[in-house]
Design brief:
Blueprint (H helix, E strand, L loop, with lengths): L23 H7 L16 H4 L1 E4 L15 E4 L1 H7 L12 E2 L2 E2 L12 E3 L5 E3 L2 H9 L5 H20 L7 H24 L3
Antiparallel strand pairs: 1-2, 3-4, 5-6
Bound molecules: zinc ion.
Zinc ion (ZN) binds next to helix 3.
Length: 193
């Protein structure tokens, strides 16, 4: 299946700021509150405060430091793994001989990486393999976060069908659902501190 459900899209027009950090609220919206690279929902990882503004072409390229088209809403794991990696001397050349990175706002990101039925991210091409290794996309955490999301959407689906459950089933469902949601809110509130 696809690594992400929505390809993030940066807005066309935006005010110019002196610091890349000022763009974070806009990036968060344009990236649907998800890490551009691994698609993790920020609510599981400490929300906006714990997410980073990644420079796709690293900060050594002065001219792209506050260029909105060069910024990516990223979880700290992907940003930390990518660090200031760049394959070339030109800020516009992000891939050289099947090594490099692809801007996640490009639909072709999905031609190189996908997700299996357990939520693990895996490469589809040599370049995908390079990105997978660089960003450590094979980590179990990516599967766990995907599963949490999956459970939530199934619970939401169940919420619309509770009238079809027997009294006993309803009791069990409500207990499971509230236990799960309490755990998640605990993780979201305290688990990242
Ligand atoms: Zn990430």
């Amino acid at each position: 299946m696809l690594l992400r459900r929505i390809v993030p899209q940066r807005r066309d027009e935006i005010k110019q700021y002196a610091s890349h950090r000022s763009y974070k609220p806009y990036l968060r919206e344009d990236f649907n509150k998800r890490c551009g690279y691994c698609d993790a929902d920020d609510k599981f990882l400490g929300a906006s405060a714990a997410f980073h503004v990644d420079h796709f072409a690293p900060q050594r390229f002065e001219e792209r430091k506050t260029d909105y088209t060069n910024l990516i809403y990223s979880c700290r794991y992907c940003n930390g793994s990518k660090s200031d990696y760049w394959p070339s001397d030109c800020s516009q050349t992000s891939v050289l001989k099947e090594e490099g990175v692809i801007d996640p706002c490009e639909a072709k990101y999905d031609e190189h990486l996908a997700r299996n039925e357990k939520g693990y991210i895996y490469p589809l091409t040599n370049l995908g393999g390079f990105i997978h290794k660089l960003l450590k996309l094979g980590l179990t955490r990516h599967s766990v976060l995907w599963k949490l999301q999956h459970i939530e959407s199934n619970l939401d689906k169940m919420d619309t069908q509770i009238e079809e459950l027997s009294t006993e089933q309803l009791k069990i469902y409500q207990l499971l659902s509230s236990e799960y949601r309490n755990l998640i809110s605990y993780i979201c509130e305290y688990g990242n501190k």
